[in-house]
Design goal:
Transcription Elongation Factor S-II, Chain A; DNA_primase_lsu_euk/arc; binds iron/sulfur cluster; about 500 residues; 4 strands; DNA binding; DNA_primase_lsu_euk; elongated
């Protein structure tokens, strides 16, 4: 009698064919793209999970030494949680291997679109491969090397004993030859080690210690993946013509994976008088910069108005408050009240879903801010960690009393293109905490976490009287339908944002 569930039967049926042969190893170089049909739902969920994984890889790579136990334990936990292959399991992780394969290729499509994206993707994939390769047992490592056509052979104990002296003297830092495994590698694959005089050479072969073999494997993988990304980028035009895929891929490359920091949770909890103080205490640098520019110039160009306006909406400004806030500031500059009411007020109502298509827009995530619409001269939007000149960033941080050692750490992270981690460090220094305990993905997350910390874990105090309660009520129904955070695909969101930006184009 068959007691297996439908899902288990399906899995068995899949494995009964030749599908298992597709993934003979838990690890691969992703040389062949998947050829099976993948539903849009699976396409998106696989991609979002891999993106989450790569973000964890990035975070851990900066916070821990890669060979440390903490690094390995945390990464393994994440791989298990997201159901990716986490150890070289023998037979029964077909689904995990399939997900690993398909999700890699989807993100390859999404992350081949610019130099920045390619570099980020390549770095995280390399770190992931390094971890997994080093976790393989000796036997599986050998099999994997053969599988990816790098048939480096581990030398026998006899040969090792015979060459012990040479191996010891020719390999820097090598003291216990007996405890190390050595691989016999063709010279062409070990040129770097040979040039640096770090290996023993005999009869046209390099004898590479185990600790260096992962560098050779990774080099090989880097070359292959870089080429593949460049090739994929060339085929983008044909993908961009696919109206189902393109919005999904755009969302992924700008994607923010985390909770939704949209407006309705906080509406009406902030008063306009609080904003100046909050900008110094709880705004991330991008929003602090925008707020200061607005106060100084009584104006922001459209990129700044969209980014800052949606952030303020996210922290709880009601429509009425937003209209009052922007109007008060703008009429102190060159815009008179009439011009504001006719031009700018409409765009603000639009962003709150009260005009046009009535889309209730959500605040921008870090990825969206970092990856799209870079600021030009006279603009204040964007991410200062990504878009500011390092010297200007340094000056800004000094003016905010960040200690010199903290500034050095931030600038190091910026140099390594870890912009969100630089922002996390800024958070830690601003709040005098050692570890923020979350992964920063969103300016509104920064604000919420800051407020939580400053208030000792309590929620924001609600303002006793405000004009926003009715707005909150009206929006609550809309919010159920309009959560456009890109954790779930919203294929119309890009088009809608274009609509929004069109309303903000007046400088
Ligand atoms: Fe703003 Fe995100 Fe950049 Fe921080 S990392 S400054 S929150 S865009």
């Amino acid at each position: 009698m068959d007691f297996s569930s439908g899902r288990a039967r399906l899995k068995q049926a899949r494995l009964a064919g030749d599908r298992r042969e597709l993934y003979p190893h838990s690890l691969q170089f992703y040389l062949d793209p998947p050829t099976e049909n993948v539903s849009l739902v699976e396409f998106e969920s696989f991609a979002v999970d891999r993106l989450k994984l790569l973000k964890v890889v990035e975070n851990l790579g900066v916070s821990y030494v890669r060979s440390s136990d903490s690094y390995k334990t945390k990464l393994e936990a994440e791989l298990r949680k997201l159901k990716f292959p986490y150890k070289a399991l023998a037979e029964d992780d077909y689904e995990a291997r399939r997900k690993d394969h398909i999700s890699h290729f989807i993100l390859r499509l999404a992350y081949c679109q610019s130099e920045d994206l390619r570099r980020w993707f390549l770095q995280q994939e390399m770190d992931l491969l390094r971890y997994r390769f080093n976790e393989l047992s000796e036997n599986l490592r050998q099999k994997f090397l053969e599988h990816v056509n790098l048939p480096f052979e581990a030398i026998s104990e006899d040969l090792k004993n015979e060459l012990a002296n040479e191996l010891c003297t020719s390999t820097p830092g090598m003291t216990k030859v007996k405890e190390q495994m050595f691989y016999k590698v063709g010279l062409a694959d070990a040129v770097d080690l040979f040039r640096a005089r770090r290996v023993f050479i005999k009869d046209g072969f390099a004898y590479v210690p185990h600790k260096e073999i992962d560098a050779i494997v990774l080099n090989n993988y880097r070359t292959k993946l870089s080429k593949a990304l460049a090739l994929t980028a060339r085929s983008l035009p044909s993908i961009q013509s696919d109206e189902r895929l393109q919005p999904l891929l755009n969302h992924l490359s700008h994607s923010y994976v985390g909770p939704d920091y949209s407006v309705q949770k906080n509406t009406g909890k902030i008063s306009l008088e609080q904003i100046d103080a909050l900008s110094g205490k709880s705004f991330p640098l991008c929003m602090r910069q925008l707020h200061k520019a607005l106060r100084d110039n009584h104006h922001l160009r459209h990129g700044g108005r969209v980014q800052y306006g949606l952030f303020l909406k996210g922290i709880g400004l009601t429509l009425e408050q937003a209209l009052e806030f922007w109007k008060k500031e703008f009429i102190r500059g060159k815009v008179d009240a009439d011009k504001f009411d006719k031009g700018y007020a409409y765009s603000i109502r639009h962003s709150y879903g009260k005009e046009g298509k009535r889309t209730d827009y959500t605040p921008y995530s870090c990825m969206k801010i970092i990856m799209s619409n870079p600021p030009s001269q006279g603009d204040y939007h964007g991410c200062p960690f990504r878009h500011s000149d390092p010297e200007l960033l340094k000056q800004k941080l000094q003016s905010y009393k960040i200690p010199p050692s903290g500034i050095t750490q931030i600038l190091e992270l910026v140099k390594g293109m870890h912009y969100q981690l630089a922002c996390q460090k800024y958070f830690e220094l601003m709040h005098d905490v050692d570890d923020i305990g979350f992964s920063l993905n969103h300016p509104n997350q920064y604000f919420t976490e800051s407020q939580r910390l400053l208030s000792g874990g309590r929620e924001l105090k609600k303002e006793p009287s405000n004009s926003g309660n009715s707005q909150q009520k009206n929006n609550s129904q809309e919010s159920m339908n309009s959560n456009s955070a890109p954790t779930s695909s919203n294929t119309t969101a890009d088009a809608e944002l274009e609509g929004l930006e069109a309303y903000f184009t007046e400088d």
